[in-house]
Batch of 2 targets.
Target 1
Amino acid sequence: MAEINLLEKYPRTKRNLDERVAQKTEEDVRIAKKFCKEYFDGTRNQGYGGYSFYERVWGGGV
C-alpha cells in the first residue's frame, strides 16, 4: 500500500522559522514554559505577546 502525504497541499509558512528560533534566549524559553502572565502579556519572543492573561482562568503559573 502506498503512503499518502495528507499535508502535501497544505499551505506553508513564509517566515523563516530557523531565524525565529535563533532569536529566542534561554530566558524567553524559560518564561514560555511557565505558561503564566508573561507568556500572554510579555513580548512576542516569550509567547503570545499582548494577549490578555486572565488570572482567574489560567492561575498563577506553574
Note: The mean pLDDT is 79.
Target 2
Amino acid sequence: MFSHLAVATGLAVGDLLFYAICFIILMWLIKLVAWKPVNEMMQKRADKISDDIDSAEKSREEAAQLATQRQEALANSRQEASSIVDSAKKQGQQQRDGILAQAQTDAQSLKENAQKDIEQERQDALSSVRNDVADLSIEIASKIIQKELSADDQKALIDSYIEGLGK
C-alpha cells in the first residue's frame, strides 16, 4: 500500500521514516533548548503585564482617595472660612453696638452737663439781676429820700439809670 504511494509521489518509506525521526528529534531539541526559555519569557511578560495592571489600579484608587481627601479638606476650609467671617461679623456688630451705646451715653452726659451749666448760668444771672435791682432800688430810694423830685427830674433820673444798666 505504501509502495504504490511511494512510487506515485517518488518518496520511499525509508525516506519518510527518516524525515519523521528527524522531525521528532528536532521537536525534542526545540523543547530542550527553546521551549523552556520561550515559556519563561512569556510567563514573565504575562506577570509583568498583570503587575502593571495591578499597579495602575492601585494608583487609580490612591488618586481617587486623594481627590476625596482634597474635596473634604476644601469643604472643611470653606466651612472654617465661613465661620471666621460670621465670627468677624458678629464681633463687628458688637463693637458697633458698643460704640453707638457709648456715643449715646456720652451725648446724654454732655446734654445733662450743658443743661446743668445753663441752669447754673441762669441762676447766676437771676441772682446778679436781683442784686442789681436791689442795689438800684436802694439807690433810687436814697436819692428820692434826699430830695423831692419834679417830673422832669424823675424822668432824667430814670434815663440815667437806664443808661447805667446798658453799660
Note: The CA atoms of residues 131 and 137 lie 10 Å apart.
